[in-house]
Write a structure and sequence with these properties.
This protein is of the alpha+beta class. The protein has four domains: 3-55 and 187-228, no CATH class; 60-178, paz domain, CATH 2.170.260; 282-414, Response regulator (Rossmann fold); 421-689, Nucleotidyltransferase, domain 5, CATH 3.30.420. The strands form seven sheets. It has a nine-stranded mixed sheet, with helices on both faces. A four-stranded antiparallel sheet has the order 1-2-3-4. Strand 3 and strand 4 form a beta hairpin. Helix 15 packs across helix 16. The relative contact order is 0.10. This is Ribonuclease H-like domain-containing protein. Residues 359-689 form the Piwi domain. It comes from Armillaria tabescens. Residues 92-180 form the PAZ domain.
């Protein structure tokens, strides 16, 4: 079988419509497919097979697809949704949204003169078929609607927008039919994302069964391409067996007043709870206010008072002093200027209580409130320099204790506190006073395909001796550029902040002797470029920060965009609830690279579906000169080990850092600094004024990437100084 010839495909995955599901009335549907790749291993080559999920345009009427995109109803009246003129005319911004969604889609159209043709959508017209004029070959000027009428194909909807090809041909939507099997690159809305996740989620036994079926579908033994190259692929209905080991759950330390000073998370899923525990370093609430962006008939003053009481009591239960039991609460219109609404509430508190709040709690509606949330964060983190915490109506009303403990985790971290730390006795790799260590995490977030918008890079770093408190630096760079161009200045600032915090807060004047750098978002093909460019920038940052001697650097690339799936063979090796591997499972042989230092670590307990381990590639270079680095790295040996980290030590380090994620009471799937860097990147839009959002650049725009970057830089606002040394991104 030749899958890529017989089925729609993307890179190393191909898809079939035998198993599919609609995606929440978006005009899209999810198809199940199969992923395949060839991986090197010791003494052999392996074929890696997994199931994958693709998003496709629904085939059929283009007109109905457009209606579903806007309303979720393919039977809606087109004159009410897509009309060009009149009181119900489609707004230009909505037309551009639809245009971006449909750009590049192939449709089949039956021409009034030349029969069926395969066409590609380039844009949508701002005029309808009744008023769009053209001159057909050998004829007189006529409108598109008249042209079809003269061919006895009168249009039902001559007053709605049309599609246009790159050559300028204008075709009515009702005469176009979407060709089956077209992958979509459109960003999914929250409802569609949930539907996609639900479709793709499979328990371990279900996923393994689907993969085994895939082996039969792929039928390598019947492929003439495999035979022509003289290859023999040995397939089996059973997966390959490999050895693994399980690291113990990290021992954690909480604060004074706790029932136990230290505790160990559950070995089955890496979780714990905060009952009878106090934060390691709890921060007082100080002055706080509550702003309700919901109407009183949906969340009454009594609801507000109970919410305030529950929040305060549960924060006190984990050690946070709450001196103001009944803070000011005010109702505001969510459609108003959010910055002004919050500022008015702050001024009211100053007038009535003579204090300025250090925390603003905002009650927001359920459902999609992305714009409101973004505006609140822009006001607090960027404009005002005050911590904000959003609570959804449906979750905070009559919430249970665990919900409030989770909220307290976020608030304490935002105010400068520390929730729990790794017990120094079991995590000396980070807290060893003889080897002061700074841990950094970096990520880059790219714009959607076809967009000219810039990419956002974030670097976070620990500033305390426990690897528990972090600060972040962000930057804009050219769209789709993977290398972090400003890494030198960002890392320098983080190094100086680390030394300043250790000196002022921990009363220890010391230089970091070790710098552990976790890098996310790098494909295997980019490893060498990242090393060639970013490693020297880290060395230069150490020189700029006047670190003498400079710290020893370990550079680790972390990835989850792989399709290596692991299934426990025996019941004793799996979580009884989810069927997944136990947290702490390490695989470093059998399927790892034969000449490079890499390993897989599953540090978290699976909640839904089949857990995916993180893949760690550690880069190696023994203190080589920067100028010779590129020549010496031609084979891309991936271990940078300047001070003798053993494989076991690095694996323990990665596992340890998966237990310090501040807003969770369970271990996470990637090291905390990597997780934080990803969160900081995802909050990039909060840096723009919601009242003057960055100029949108649609497909086919006139600005170059450089011009777009400059436009965005002019509208991008940094984090407020008062928040820049705190974990505002919690």
């Amino acid at each position: 079988m030749e899958p890529s010839l017989n089925h729609p495909f993307r890179v190393r995955s191909f898809y079939s419509d035998r198993i599919k599901a609609p995606l929440a009335s978006t005009g899209l549907e999810a198809w199940q497919g199969y992923f395949q790749s060839v991986r090197p291993a010791l003494h052999r080559i392996l074929v890696n097979i997994d199931i994958s999920t693709g998003v496709f345009f629904k085939p059929g009427s283009l007109l109905e697809l457009c209606l579903e995109f806007f309303t979720g109803n393919r039977r809606e009246n087109p004159d009410r949704i897509l009309r060009v003129s009149g009181p119900q005319a489609i707004p230009p911004v909505q037309r551009h949204r639809l245009q971006n969604f449909l750009f590049g889609v192939k449709v089949e159209s039956e021409s009034a003169a030349s029969g069926k043709k395969l066409l590609t959508i380039h844009k949508l017209t701002d005029r309808d078929a009744a008023t769009t004029m053209f001159t057909p070959s050998g004829g007189r000027q006529t409108s598109v609607a008249q042209y079809y009428a003269q061919a006895n194909q009168r249009l039902r909807y001559p007053n709605i927008i049309c599609m246009q090809t790159a050559k300028g041909a204008v075709i009515p939507l009702e005469r176009c039919y979407v060709v089956p099997g077209q992958l979509s690159r459109s960003e999914l809305n929250p409802d569609a994302t949930r539907a996609m996740v639900e479709f793709a989620t499979k328990k371990p036994d279900q996923r393994l069964s689907a993969i085994q079926i895939g082996i039969q579908v792929l039928a390598y033994g019947q492929s003439r391409y495999v035979r022509d190259f003289g290859l023999d692929i040995k397939t089996s209905s059973l997966p390959m067996e490999i050895s693994a080991r399980v690291l113990k759950a990290l021992e954690l330390k909480c604060g004074p007043g706790s029932k136990q000073a230290t505790f160990q998370p559950k070995e089955s899923d890496g979780s714990w709870n905060m009952v009878d525990k106090k934060f390691f370093r709890p921060m007082p609430f100080g002055t706080w206010i509550v702003v309700l962006f919901v109407p009183q008939n949906r969340f009454s003053p009594d609801d507000a008072k109970k919410t305030i009481t529950d929040l305060g009591q549960n924060c006190e239960a984990v050690g946070m002093p709450v001196s103001e039991k009944q803070p000011l609460f005010v109702y505001k219109n969510p459609q108003s200027n959010i910055d002004q609404s919050i500022s008015d509430a702050v001024m009211q508190n100053r007038s009535e209580r003579k204090t300025t709040p250090t925390l603003i709690v905002c009650i927001i509606p359920d459902g999609s409130a992305t714009d409101l949330y973004t505006a609140i964060k822009h006001c607090g983190d960027i404009r005002r320099g005050v911590a904000t915490q959003c609570l959804r109506v449906g979750k905070c009303r009559n919430a249970r204790q665990q919900y409030w403990f989770n909220v307290a985790l976020k608030i304490n971290a935002k105010l400068g506190g520390v929730n729990v730390i790794p017990n120094p006795k079991s995590a000396s790799i980070i807290s060893d006073p003889m080897q002061p260590t700074i841990v950094m995490g970096a990520d880059v977030m790219h714009p959607a395909p076809g967009s000219q918008s810039p990419s956002y890079a974030a670097v976070v770093a620990s500033i305390d001796s426990y690897g528990a408190r972090y600060i972040a630096k962000t930057t804009l760079q050219l769209g789709r550029q993977e290398m972090i161009g400003d890494l030198r200045s960002m890392a320098k600032d983080l190094l100086l902040s680390y030394m300043s915090y250790r000196s002022s807060m921990e009363k220890v004047s010391t230089l970091p002797k070790r710098l552990i750098f976790f890098r996310d978002g790098v494909s295997e093909g980019e490893f060498k470029r990242v090393l060639d460019l970013e490693l020297p920038l880290l060395h230069d940052a150490c020189i700029d920060a006047k670190l003498n001697p400079p710290p020893k650097i370990t550079f680790i690339i972390v990835g989850k965009r792989h399709h290596m799936r692991f299934f426990p063979k025996n019941d004793k090796d799996k979580d009884a609830k989810s069927g997944n591997l136990l947290p702490g499972t390490v695989i470093d042989q059998g399927i790892t690279n034969p000449v490079e230092f890499d390993f897989y670590l599953q540090s978290h307990g699976g909640l839904l579906g089949t857990s995916k381990s993180s893949h760690y590639n550690v880069v190696y270079d023994v203190s080589r000169a920067h100028s010779a680095f590129s020549l010496l790295m031609l084979t891309i040996v991936r271990v940078l080990q300047e001070f003798g980290f053993s494989a076991d030590a690095i694996q323990l380090l990665a596992h340890t850092l998966c237990f310090t994620y501040a807003r969770s009471t369970r271990s996470v799937s990637i090291p905390t600094p990597v997780y934080y860097a990803h969160i900081v990147c995802s909050r990039a839009k909060t840096h723009y004024d919601p009242q003057g959002a960055p100029s949108s650049v649609v497909s086919g725009g006139t600005q170059t990437r450089e011009e777009t970057l400059n436009t965005h830089r002019g509208q991008y606002h940094p984090v407020h100084d008062a928040q820049s040394k705190r974990m505002y991104f919690m």
